[in-house]
Design brief:
The protein is of the alpha+beta class. Helix content is 51%, strand content 11%. The protein is built from 22 helices and 10 strands. The protein is globular.
């Protein structure tokens, strides 16, 4: 045995022993199992990643491979790893595993896999696949009992932890070798039905269902037909295998792929929707006629009259797969926009993607008087509708239905990125003080890390209303949601003690870092405000010093 081989083997064995030793130190394994009957062991996957001098052992494989051949001049050969080292590693894991298989530490199954940097490539090997039949049978009995008691005959909301495990178990080929797609989807639907009373809870259960289906698709179903290229920096790329055979029997699970695609498109944040579209496109490539229809007409989740409206005034057509609503205005009048707004709002209230973009055909090209907004059809539609005062209540109803944190219009990106409801909220907020509460609601949901259009609106709002008893709370909400690039020109107004007093009242009780953040768009760095405070007199000096003191808590 070469010195290099001995050193590499010793390094890998040390990593294996460390993994087992660390987990044996845990004292919470049994208590973890006691939380739910859907789990019979904690650990089921073990990955050894050999990189000379930096070998790791972990519970998860994130799927990213960096070829590091250039970093290691002395390298093992594929044959050395496969024929000489791998058997020793497998024997060690078997020896460490044997006394633990019936303890809470090990699940009903245990897979040991390795990734090895060799002279030729990154070598992937599955070294051990262990199944504990007694634990497997126990888990199956618990699953069927749970489905019968809680889903088939139950009426109460279910526990999130149980959904987390159950959704994965139902798609585990070791537990259910013959996937019954219709039955499995029925269980997913029942979970959602039982938890619909609480929107937040329902969203959590849906997320677990989507994660389970995504894991099944990416790790079980699609690898049968596609070669995958995974990266930490871009979406997974799929290439259809040249020798793949598409028979009807093998393609039955494609309905589950389509179900998952629709779930992603309807319920996941904007940044995740591309995966749902990718699943649909793959299903079409695999020959699914249903996928073709869905890409053309939508998912089928909405009734035909809910996604199509046509009369003498306008035509509206919606596709939830692409999150688009096409609107053709035949008559430029209030009634046409009223019907369009009702059409859109009704869809959103029934689960249509809030990030949808509008494709508008209209002779009118109005835009809001706010710099930096995308000159999109979506923007233009709401600006056109804002011309009709009677439609303001409908526009507010739309905005409240559309506003959703971490969602963004599909036709905006970068510095023009904006949350659904932005154009209606901005327009109404600049038109009438009645809509100040709507603006505050909007700002409370802004994701300032991924959008900045609120900066321009805040500047326009300040110019429109200044600092008054009514506008000060709204202005504070806007400043709180602004980015550090915002510029709000109210310094001159705040020279007046009464207005400065109103402004200071809005910052009382806030964390220091937040006060500093809200002051920056007005005065810039605190040093400038300190200079003004030194020069001020009387009550104005007291107020400016109070602002500085509140902001200084950021460094405390």
């Amino acid at each position: 045995m070469s010195t290099l081989q001995e050193l590499a083997t010793a390094e890998m064995m040390a990593a294996i022993n460390a993994w087992f030793d660390e987990r044996l130190q845990r004292t919470d394994l049994q208590s973890s199992l006691d939380r739910t009957g859907m789990q019979v062991g904690i650990f089921n996957d073990f990955l050894l990643d050999y990189k000379p001098g930096r070998t790791t052992a972990d519970d998860f494989d994130f799927g990213y491979d960096d070829d590091e051949r250039s970093r290691t001049p002395a390298r093992l050969d594929d044959a050395q790893v496969r024929d000489l080292i791998a058997p020793q590693l497998t024997a060690l894991v078997q020896a460490r595993l044997a006394p633990l298989v019936d303890t809470p530490m090990i699940d009903y199954r245990f897979t040991f896999r390795g990734k090895f940097q060799t002279a030729q490539r990154k070598l992937h090997l599955t070294l051990l696949e262990y199944v504990n039949d007694n634990k497997r049978q126990l888990l199956l009995e618990r699953i069927h009992a749970y489905v019968d008691r809680k889903l088939t005959h139950g009426t109460d909301p279910t526990e999130k932890l149980e959904t987390f495990f159950l959704t994965r178990h139902l798609l585990d080929k070791q537990l259910f070798p013959q996937l019954d797609v219709a039955w499995t989807i029925a269980q997913f639907e029942r979970i959602q039905a039982l938890n619909k009373a609480s929107p937040d809870t329902l969203a959590e259960h849906r997320h677990d269902i989507i994660r389970a289906i995504t894991g099944w698709a990416e790790n079980e179903f699609l690898p049968q037909y596609y070669d995958r290229a995974q990266s930490a920096y871009r979406a997974t790329e799929y290439a259809l295998k040249a020798t793949v055979a598409l028979d009807a029997q093998a393609m039955r699970p494609i309905d589950l792929l389509l179900y998952g695609a629709v779930m992603i498109l309807r319920h996941e944040p904007s940044y995740a929707k591309s995966k749902g579209l990718k699943f649909l496109e793959i299903a079409r490539e695999l020959g699914s006629e249903r996928a073709v229809r869905m890409l053309k007409e939508g998912s089928g989740a909405f009734a035909p009259d809910a996604i199509h409206l046509k009369n003498a005034q306008l035509e509206c057509r919606a596709n939830d797969v692409f999150a688009t609503i096409s609107i053709t205005i035949a008559r430029e009048e209030e009634g046409a926009y009223a019907q369009a707004l009702a059409f859109i709002t009704r869809l959103l209230n029934n689960g249509f993607p809030k990030s949808c973009q509008i494709k508008l055909k209209s002779k009118v090209k109005a835009y809001l008087p706010i710099k930096g907004l995308a000159k999109s059809d979506t923007h233009r539609f709401f600006a056109n509708a804002l011309a009709y005062a009677a439609l303001q209540p409908q526009l507010e109803a739309y905005a409240r239905a559309a506003i959703e944190q971490f969602e963004f219009y599909a036709d905006t990106e970068g510095e023009k990125n904006c949350m659904p409801g932005s154009y209606a909220t901005f327009g109404l907020g600049l038109l009438d003080a009645r809509y100040f509460p709507l603006v505050q609601h909007y700002m409370a949901n802004v994701d300032e890390e991924h959008q900045s259009v609120q900066d321009q609106f805040t500047a326009a709002f300040a110019e429109q209303y200044g600092v008054t008893r009514d506008s000060a709370p709204v202005l504070a909400a806007c400043l709180r949601a602004c980015t550090d690039n915002a510029k709000v020109k109210i310094q001159a107004e705040l020279e007046e003690v009464e207005k400065l007093e109103l402004f200071c009242q809005q910052l009382q009780g806030l964390e220091g870092y937040l006060v500093e953040h809200m002051l920056y768009p007005i005065w810039g760095k605190l040093e400038k405000l300190a200079t003004l405070a030194r020069k001020a007199q009387g009550r104005r000096k007291e107020l400016l010093l109070a602002l500085l003191e509140a902001a200084s808590k950021a460094d405390a």
